[in-house]
Amino acid sequence: MGTYTLRRLLFAVPTLLFISLVIFLLLDLAPSDPTANLPLTIPPEVRQKIRESLGLGQPIHVRYLLWCKQFFINEPLNVLEALLGVSGDSERLRVLSWQTRSPVVDLIVERLPQTLWVVGLSYVIGVLIAIPIGIISAYRQYSWFDQIGTFVSTVGFSVPTFFTGVLLIVVFSVGLGWFPSIYDTTHRVTDWSSFLVQARQMAMPVFVLALYNAAQIARFMRASMLENLGQDYVRTARGKGFHERRILFVHVLRNSMIPVVTIIALGVPQVFGGAIITEQIFKVNGLGQLLIVAIQGGDLPTVQTLTFIFAGLIVVFNLAADILYGVLDPTIRYDQR
Q1: Which of 10, 27, 14 shows the shortest CA–CA distance to 306?
Q2: 140: closest CA among 154, 130, 150, 153?
Q3: Of 15, 39, 202, 262, which residue has the fewest beta carbons closer than 10 angstroms?
């Protein structure tokens, strides 16, 4: 497995470079103008100078190579110097946002905790809920628990998150007044009372995303469990007198988790991208909000960086899923590939 992992890591380098090139070309060639939101009274020659100050006067290949140098070399050096507590080269060029003229990585680091609080927690809760529901629904097929679980998962997977979010705001914020409809990103947790305030404002956005994630994973978990429960090795184990709990949790669950691991691993970057709408509904000032504002303002460096990070997460978690395959199924021999 070590050889396979190293080979996949080496193959990921040109893959990420190709992804960055495609993203850069698609966004750069799109009909976008960073001066479109400026007042119409600004003369055309001034607009042209603004574009040149942003580097748009250079050829596209020069701008791409400059972005690669800034993102893949300068930004990691800046992070390393910050971790070591040493002062580096202040003249080092970084990826700057056209809107704020601040480093894009600094903006991402500033918004990341808000996204992790909501999106990350909702995904963890969704996985923890979905796996037991899928196991019990499959083991007790056609029972009342299976009927209710299948119905809820179908509704949660079919109904879009923007509808669920608006419905919760109308019922629990406007109607009952239990939870705030707007997420306060300036709130800081310092004691128990402030933690309860944080929990109240997180409740609805976390529930919306957790319901959607749990519904999807539970359906796959149930289908995978049903497929393995009908295999010959299960009947053989029962014929040998093995305890039902051992058959279920040692043999069936381990084999059933192999395809589910892919859904869970590949779902992580999709959650960060798909939560953009939910962040807009509840006014969560996270990465989704940053991406929307950057798109509306024609801020190409920010859009390019965020899109590449989302694409890079897919490559990383795809590799993580393959490695977990070998842990769950020892018959897989990656080193022979």
Answers
A1: 27
A2: 150
A3: 39
Residue spans per domain, the chain: 2-84, 107-336
The model carries a pTM of 0.74
Tell me the pLDDT tens digit for each residue of 114-142. Answer: 777 788 888 888 889 888 888 888 888 88
Helix/strand/coil for 99: coil
At residue 173, φ and ψ (nearest 5 deg) are: -100, -55
Task: Report the C-alpha gap between 320 and 323 in whole angstroms.
Answer: 5
Amino acid at 15: T
Distances (CA, A) of 223 to 132, 237, 260, 268: 13, 21, 10, 21
Residue type at 331?
T
Which residues are registered as beta bridge partners of 103? 96
Q: What is the DSSP string of 299-334?
A: -HHHHHHHHHHHHHHHHHHHHHHHHHHHHH-TT--G
pLDDT of residue 293 exceeding 50 = yes
> Can you say whether the dihedral through the CA atoms of 139, 145, 150, 153 is positive or negative?
negative
Name the class of domain 107-336.
Answer: mainly alpha
User: Residue 31 and residue 27: Cα distance in Å, rounded?
Assistant: 8
Tens-place pLDDT, residues 263-292: 787 777 766 666 677 777 887 777 777 888
Question: Within a 13 Å sphere around the CA of 50, how many CA atoms are in the beta-carbon half?
Answer: 15
Q: What is the pLDDT of residue 337?
A: 47
pLDDT at residue number 24: 81
Q: 297: which residues sit within 8 A by CB, 6+ positions away?
A: 34, 37, 98, 99
- Tokens representing 44 are 């055309």
Enter the DSSP assignment of 103: B
Residues 255, 329 contacting (CB under 8 angstroms)? yes
Tokens of 24: 């850069």
Percentage of the chain beyond pLDDT 90 is: 0
CB 237 within 8 A of CB 247: yes
Question: What is the mean pLDDT of the segment spanning 141-151?
Answer: 85
